[in-house]
Amino acid sequence: MPSSAQALKQALMSDIETIYWLERVDSTQLELRRKLQENPDMAHLSAVVAASQDKGRGRGVSKWHDTPGNSVLLSVLLRWPLPVRESFDINRWVCGRLSSVLPPSVSFKWPNDLMVGERKLGGMLIENHWGPTGIKSSALGLGINVSASPKDLSRSISMETLGAEVNVMQWVQEILSALRPPANEFVDIPELRKHYDLLLWGRDQWRSYEVDGLQFEAIVAHVQPSGHLGLELKNGTVVHYDLDTVKWVHPFSE
Asked: Residue 28 CB: number of other CB atoms within 10 A?
């Protein structure tokens, strides 16, 4: 019987440029970074896929926890034909492409979580590589819960729980396919940003947020071109926040 990494390799499209298949790794994002250091000319859509990782991480100090074989654990190199000037436009583009293949119940919580209601399906981490005139390439790290596990936290959810496809190999293929077409969305930046705002988690329900220890209720209004989150308060005022300034107060204890 082939290993999970071998099965992934056999199941995926043959025209993906370069994929490194690993049973276990510290982090797909760290491994992609190492591969890029070894080969700075690595092709667009080169990827690292692992069955399990020991030190997966999200933005900041957040860590990704997985049960071996239960999750999509993927990092992909994205090269942009023209430099991208605003880093958060990369997030917008990725979310738009992912929305084309993920279940319609999935929305995108600013800045990097994949949510279904109040439960987390997955997360992404984007590391941008800058040139003199803008972002020339990006490393997209993506983790998605596919199969349910008794070890899952109550605040998480999986594709299996949603009644969606539970084959990790199939989801890797779908995601890489979604990332493959040319990035035409960057031709019309206003439309890219408008589409992303429609995908935002928190637009449809008042939820509790916290800033400097103070809690308040708000709904998500939009994200500014710079990437700042706009929250609408109950008096109609829209207040903007930078990364790490505001946090959602989730209803789970873990």
From this structure: 27
As a whole number of angstroms, the distance between CA 48 and CA 35 comes to 9
- The Cα–Cα gap between 219 and 230 comes to 9
How far apart, in Å, are the Cα atoms of 192 and each of 30, 65, 184, 198, 217? 29, 31, 10, 10, 28
Helix axes 87-99, 189-199, angle to 10 degrees: 60
Q: Which segment of 63-67, 159-163, 185-189, 219-223 scores lowest on mean pLDDT?
A: 63-67
The structure tokens 């319609």 sit at 104
**CA 99, CA 91: separation in Å to the nearest integer?**
12
C-alpha to C-alpha distances, 247 to 201, 204, 217, 240, 243, nearest whole angstrom? 13, 17, 12, 13, 9
| DSSP E strands, the chain | 19-25, 47-53, 71-84, 107-109, 113-116, 119-131, 134-145, 207-211, 214-223, 229-233, 238-241, 247-248
Q: What is the pLDDT of residues 205-240, one digit of tens each?
A: 999 999 999 999 999 999 999 999 999 999 999 999
**All domains in the chain, ordered by first residue:** 4-199 (3.30.930.10), 207-248 (2.30.30.100)
d(CA 29, CA 108): 21
Q: Which helix (H) or strand (E) holds 5?
A: helix 4-11
DSSP-based three-state secondary structure for 6: helix
Q: Is the peptide bond before 111 cis (omega within 30 degrees of 0)?
A: yes
Identify the DSSP state of 241.
E
